[in-house]
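User: Sequence recovery, please. Input:
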């Protein structure tokens, strides 16, 4: 697993972004940027190449699922590994994320080992 890839952490809750960044640091990732919603994340992705996106599901004004759909529809970005983070493990959410092309899925709360396993499966 290449821990030098730039990672974009997307969550509208700054505490959650900090937690995910700390977990990423624990498993060796240091090149981490943040975005506070799907719209700002998409802007960042269009200006910078990320090797991985870790995005929350529930955000305003643009959700993680809407961001995922935009990324998968964008020829320059569609191959970017994308992990969705959510507090809900509802089957319909998992199905919707898979249908939209999510690379993997993490249900909160999670630890560094879970995050590492999910990242290793997509990088």
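Assistant: Recovered sequence (123 residues):
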């Amino acid at each position: 697993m290449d821990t030098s890839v730039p990672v974009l952490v997307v969550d509208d809750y700054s505490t959650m972004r900090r937690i995910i960044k700390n977990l990423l640091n624990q498993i060796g990732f240091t090149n981490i940027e943040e975005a506070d919603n799907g719209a700002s994340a998409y802007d960042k992705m269009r200006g910078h190449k990320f090797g991985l996106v870790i995005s929350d599901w529930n955000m305003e004004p643009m959700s993680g699922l809407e961001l995922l759909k935009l990324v998968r529809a964008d020829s320059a970005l569609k191959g970017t590994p994308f992990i969705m983070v959510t507090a809900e493990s509802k089957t319909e959410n998992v199905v919707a994320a898979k249908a939209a092309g999510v690379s993997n899925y993490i249900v909160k709360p999670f630890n560094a080992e879970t995050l590492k396993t999910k990242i290793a499966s997509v990088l």
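The mean pLDDT is 95.
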